[in-house]
Write the structure tokens for this entry.
Amino acid sequence: MTAQNSTPARPDPTTPPPDSSLVLGAMTFGTRIDEETSFALLDRFVERGGTWIDTADCYAFWLDPAGRGGASERVIGRWLAARPGMRDRVRIATKVGAEPLWAGSWPEHRSGLSRRAIHDAFAGSLARLGIESVDLLWLHQEDRTVPIEESVDAMAELAADGRVRRVGASNHPAWRVERARAHALATGAMPIDALQLSATALRPRPGTQPEGNVHPFGVLGAEQVDLAREERLEVWAYSPLLGGAYDDPAKPIDPVFDHPGTERRLAALDEVARRTGARRGQVVLAHLVSQGIRPILGGSRPYQLEEALDGVSLVLDEEAREILDAAL
């Protein structure tokens, strides 16, 4: 992104992004994943052409003994400090709005998306990351106690001086994103140009949420897909591999996906996996990329990173895409 008053170039969601499409999710860096392993994953990600690293100011408060976030950003900050020149090779995305006000207070009492909260949270993120700007700042989850216009104006202030290059919305309903975009465009501010939601090959039953997803609008739905296509917004997908359940028999698929459509979708994944010699999860990633969606990997082991990078590099031929499109 450039100046606040210019119209940003918007990515086309119908074509894969030009750089490596995989995003490295750093949610449990510094908590479940120790610093040595985190550094190794980050190093290998960049070695293989990875660009985007995704974190949040609240990661991972539920795993931290003190019940507060910040560990992930601190690990990334120390990694950047230990790798001179690395900041020029990667893009950093972080989020604000979901940090508990005190240990055990989430979700009733969290930082939220008021102007003051956004500015304070972002200042903390920059300090932990040890950088002067981020490439993408997400509104982490909606805050209906604050007019969305106030949140947009706060993000615009951060973008105006170059500290934020792009803005996005995670776990927001489509109508609220469009209201935010309309206000930004009307005031000459930088509009939201990216959505981050849970998305995978399987679909939960209507009225249900996948395990661990506590956001009422956290699953990519038809309205968000339609908004993204019409307005050419980039889509990022978290939890694309269902925690490894596509390929690990020891990890059962969440019961919210237990319905007739799932059997048809799994059969299509299996057929394409046989045709390509790939694993089922890699086919899921390749299909997301073929739709212009950036999958986020939250894996904690090197082999998971290697398999995911191979998955997003898998080129599906026309017949394979037709099989998947018909079933998914």
About this structure: Residues 66 and 138 are 24 Å apart (CA to CA). The longest strand covers residues 91-96. The mean pLDDT is 93.
